[in-house]
Amino acid sequence: MFDQPLHGGLVRHFKLSVRTIVWLLLALLTLVPPALAQSGNPSGLPLPRFASTRSDPINVRVGPGTKYEVSWTYLKSVIPVEIIQEFDTWRKIRDVDGAEGWVHQNLLQGTRAGYAAPLMANGEVVLRADQSDLGHHAGAAGCRVQGDHQAV
Hints:
Elements lengths: L5 H31 L12 E5 L4 E4 L8 E5 L5 E8 L2 E5 L5 E5 L3 E2 L16 E2 L8 E2 L15
Antiparallel strand pairs: 1-4, 1-7, 2-3, 4-5, 5-6, 8-9
Protein backbone atom coordinates (compact mmCIF):
# COMPACT_ATOMS: atom_id res chain seq x y z
CA MET A 1 0.00 0.00 0.00
CA PHE A 2 2.81 2.39 0.81
CA ASP A 3 5.06 1.09 -1.94
CA GLN A 4 3.10 2.90 -4.73
CA PRO A 5 3.96 6.53 -5.40
CA LEU A 6 1.28 8.96 -4.27
CA HIS A 7 1.40 11.03 -7.42
CA GLY A 8 0.64 8.05 -9.75
CA GLY A 9 -3.08 8.16 -9.00
CA LEU A 10 -3.13 11.94 -9.42
CA VAL A 11 -1.41 11.70 -12.80
CA ARG A 12 -3.89 9.10 -14.02
CA HIS A 13 -6.79 11.23 -12.76
CA PHE A 14 -5.29 14.35 -14.37
CA LYS A 15 -4.89 12.55 -17.74
CA LEU A 16 -8.49 11.40 -17.58
CA SER A 17 -9.69 14.94 -16.80
CA VAL A 18 -7.65 16.48 -19.62
CA ARG A 19 -8.95 13.86 -22.07
CA THR A 20 -12.54 14.56 -20.99
CA ILE A 21 -12.06 18.33 -21.34
CA VAL A 22 -10.56 17.92 -24.83
CA TRP A 23 -13.51 15.78 -25.97
CA LEU A 24 -15.98 18.28 -24.56
CA LEU A 25 -14.25 21.17 -26.34
CA LEU A 26 -14.26 19.29 -29.63
CA ALA A 27 -17.95 18.54 -29.20
CA LEU A 28 -18.66 22.21 -28.51
CA LEU A 29 -16.62 23.33 -31.51
CA THR A 30 -18.81 21.28 -33.81
CA LEU A 31 -21.84 23.23 -32.56
CA VAL A 32 -20.27 26.70 -32.80
CA PRO A 33 -19.90 27.17 -36.60
CA PRO A 34 -23.65 27.10 -37.34
CA ALA A 35 -24.20 29.65 -34.59
CA LEU A 36 -21.48 31.94 -35.94
CA ALA A 37 -22.47 31.56 -39.58
CA GLN A 38 -24.22 34.62 -40.95
CA SER A 39 -25.70 35.33 -44.31
CA GLY A 40 -23.11 38.04 -45.02
CA ASN A 41 -25.54 40.96 -44.95
CA PRO A 42 -26.10 43.55 -42.19
CA SER A 43 -29.64 42.47 -41.23
CA GLY A 44 -28.87 38.75 -41.19
CA LEU A 45 -32.09 38.12 -43.11
CA PRO A 46 -32.13 36.12 -46.34
CA LEU A 47 -31.78 37.78 -49.72
CA PRO A 48 -33.73 38.30 -51.85
CA ARG A 49 -36.86 38.93 -49.78
CA PHE A 50 -40.09 40.84 -50.26
CA ALA A 51 -41.21 43.97 -48.45
CA SER A 52 -43.27 47.09 -49.09
CA THR A 53 -42.74 50.81 -48.73
CA ARG A 54 -43.69 52.24 -45.35
CA SER A 55 -44.54 55.88 -46.05
CA ASP A 56 -44.85 58.45 -48.79
CA PRO A 57 -43.11 60.07 -50.51
CA ILE A 58 -39.96 57.91 -50.70
CA ASN A 59 -36.89 58.93 -52.66
CA VAL A 60 -35.18 56.05 -54.45
CA ARG A 61 -31.49 56.80 -54.97
CA VAL A 62 -28.79 55.58 -57.36
CA GLY A 63 -26.53 54.58 -54.47
CA PRO A 64 -26.64 53.71 -50.74
CA GLY A 65 -26.59 57.13 -49.09
CA THR A 66 -28.08 60.62 -49.12
CA LYS A 67 -25.13 61.94 -51.13
CA TYR A 68 -26.37 59.97 -54.16
CA GLU A 69 -28.87 61.44 -56.63
CA VAL A 70 -32.57 60.65 -56.44
CA SER A 71 -33.62 58.41 -59.36
CA TRP A 72 -37.36 58.59 -58.74
CA THR A 73 -39.87 59.06 -55.94
CA TYR A 74 -42.68 56.76 -54.79
CA LEU A 75 -45.71 58.94 -54.12
CA LYS A 76 -47.79 56.23 -52.41
CA SER A 77 -47.03 53.85 -49.57
CA VAL A 78 -47.39 50.05 -49.46
CA ILE A 79 -45.73 49.55 -52.85
CA PRO A 80 -44.45 45.95 -53.16
CA VAL A 81 -40.68 45.69 -53.61
CA GLU A 82 -38.01 43.01 -53.51
CA ILE A 83 -34.90 43.64 -51.41
CA ILE A 84 -31.98 42.33 -53.46
CA GLN A 85 -28.94 43.78 -51.66
CA GLU A 86 -27.95 45.43 -48.37
CA PHE A 87 -25.29 47.93 -47.43
CA ASP A 88 -25.21 49.13 -43.83
CA THR A 89 -28.71 50.61 -43.29
CA TRP A 90 -29.49 50.93 -47.00
CA ARG A 91 -31.46 48.41 -49.06
CA LYS A 92 -31.30 47.96 -52.82
CA ILE A 93 -34.80 47.26 -54.05
CA ARG A 94 -36.46 46.13 -57.27
CA ASP A 95 -40.07 47.03 -58.03
CA VAL A 96 -42.63 45.20 -60.18
CA ASP A 97 -41.42 47.05 -63.28
CA GLY A 98 -37.83 45.83 -62.71
CA ALA A 99 -36.48 49.26 -61.75
CA GLU A 100 -33.75 49.13 -59.08
CA GLY A 101 -32.56 51.70 -56.56
CA TRP A 102 -31.54 52.29 -52.94
CA VAL A 103 -33.75 53.32 -49.99
CA HIS A 104 -33.09 53.57 -46.26
CA GLN A 105 -34.25 50.58 -44.19
CA ASN A 106 -36.60 52.78 -42.12
CA LEU A 107 -38.66 53.46 -45.25
CA LEU A 108 -39.49 49.76 -45.72
CA GLN A 109 -41.69 47.35 -43.81
CA GLY A 110 -41.72 43.56 -43.77
CA THR A 111 -45.38 43.38 -44.80
CA ARG A 112 -45.77 41.88 -48.24
CA ALA A 113 -48.07 43.60 -50.70
CA GLY A 114 -49.10 42.94 -54.28
CA TYR A 115 -50.94 44.25 -57.30
CA ALA A 116 -54.11 42.90 -58.85
CA ALA A 117 -54.21 43.64 -62.55
CA PRO A 118 -57.64 44.35 -64.06
CA LEU A 119 -58.54 41.33 -66.16
CA MET A 120 -61.86 42.59 -67.46
CA ALA A 121 -62.64 45.52 -69.73
CA ASN A 122 -64.69 47.28 -67.03
CA GLY A 123 -61.75 47.31 -64.58
CA GLU A 124 -63.07 44.57 -62.31
CA VAL A 125 -60.83 41.81 -61.02
CA VAL A 126 -61.91 38.18 -60.81
CA LEU A 127 -61.04 36.67 -57.43
CA ARG A 128 -60.90 32.91 -57.01
CA ALA A 129 -60.94 30.86 -53.82
CA ASP A 130 -59.12 28.01 -55.58
CA GLN A 131 -58.36 26.75 -59.09
CA SER A 132 -61.75 25.08 -59.54
CA ASP A 133 -63.72 28.13 -58.38
CA LEU A 134 -65.40 30.14 -61.15
CA GLY A 135 -64.78 33.24 -59.09
CA HIS A 136 -66.77 36.34 -58.48
CA HIS A 137 -66.18 39.96 -59.36
CA ALA A 138 -64.60 42.31 -56.87
CA GLY A 139 -65.26 46.03 -57.09
CA ALA A 140 -63.26 48.55 -59.11
CA ALA A 141 -59.51 48.16 -59.65
CA GLY A 142 -58.82 50.66 -56.87
CA CYS A 143 -60.33 48.46 -54.15
CA ARG A 144 -58.17 47.06 -51.35
CA VAL A 145 -58.18 43.31 -50.73
CA GLN A 146 -56.78 41.72 -47.60
CA GLY A 147 -56.57 38.06 -46.73
CA ASP A 148 -54.43 35.16 -45.66
CA HIS A 149 -51.56 33.95 -47.84
CA GLN A 150 -52.32 30.49 -49.12
CA ALA A 151 -50.55 28.55 -51.81
CA VAL A 152 -52.89 26.93 -54.30
